[in-house]
Design brief:
Elements (H helix, E strand, L loop, with lengths): L2 H44 L21 H5 L3 H14 L4 H13 L2
Helix pairs in contact: 3-4
């Protein structure tokens, strides 16, 4: 075998090590990102906030679609119509609909 054949054979394991090290690093960073995202979402849910604008849970008096962002934007009529539309689609119960309407009307 020639000297050039030996040199390229010796480089292959080093290249594989570099690729595997890079792959492990990417996977580790991805796992860290997933854990941090889960922690942030948990903290937001414990504080009663919402990361996707979907509203709070029934336990904290919130209704889907009646998030804090929608409570300050739009007219009262628009917000009431939005709550009624959610109830018509079955996205919220009648009790949640009435609670959301009471909150909206309470801001007047």
């Amino acid at each position: 075998m020639s000297a050039s054949g030996v040199a390229s054979a010796e480089l292959a394991p080093a290249t594989y090590d570099l690729v595997w090290t890079g792959l492990v690093a990417v996977l580790a960073l991805g796992a860290i990102a997933v854990v941090l995202t889960a922690v942030v979402l948990l903290i937001r849910s414990l504080r009663g906030g919402s990361s996707d604008g979907g509203g709070g849970s029934a336990a904290d008096g919130g209704a889907p679609g009646a998030s804090a962002g929608s409570s300050t934007s739009g007219s009262v009529d628009e917000r009431l119509a939005e709550v009624d539309a959610l109830a018509a689609r079955g996205a919220i119960t009648d009790a949640e609909r009435q609670a959301a309407r009471d909150r909206i009307l309470g801001t007047l």
